[in-house]
Design goal:
Layout lengths: L1 H21 L18 E6 L4 E5 L5 E2 L2 E4 L10 E5 L7 E6 L5 E10 L2 E8 L18 E6 L4 E5 L9 E5 L8 H13 L1 H10 L1
Parallel strand pairs: 1-11, 6-9
Antiparallel strand pairs: 1-2, 2-3, 4-5, 5-8, 6-7, 7-8, 10-11
Amino acid sequence: MIANVRFLRSAIGLLLLLLAAFVVPLRADTVGVSTNPLDPFVINFDENGNATVSINGAPAITVISHLGTDPTGGSTNPVLIYNLPSTIGPGDLGIADSTGAISDIVRFYNDGTGGHLIFYSDSTGTGDLADTGLPSNANIALTVTESNGAFSFFSGGSAGVNNDYYGISNAVSAPEPSSMLLLGVGLFGFLPFARRRFRSA
């Protein structure tokens, strides 16, 4: 009888140990962390599918992005997906606006082709590719606050330790330099008229 109890305890202990090895809880300190720490990357991305990445300090290259069916089931709308250079720790990063409300979510996930980032925004129908609404199954592990439409997240805790993520949310479009030059030339052309008017007064 005692031998059976010992065997049963050992079997349950072994079963719990095996379950613990296969069940990995979502941890905030692993979200976005590269599974290959020898090749950290820096990625710059926005809500319109524009992104560049620098791997281990190399020159930046364009990141492939596309609109597609949400592989994580968070949205019924097509979502903006970026392909990352390596697999990463999965999880959701909340982006808070100046009031503290979550306005965007960046989701990190892996599949058979590698690591990916999905950019969700709470705005819908405003023209940016990420403006598909927030995911219904969000499980935010970390939150960062945007400033002037930009945010950053360092998966290693500080810049340069592991992967660095720099995002643009709801970017305000700036005039093109050629438009500003044309405006300046036009204003300069009005100077003689303004000078004549000032002298005649």
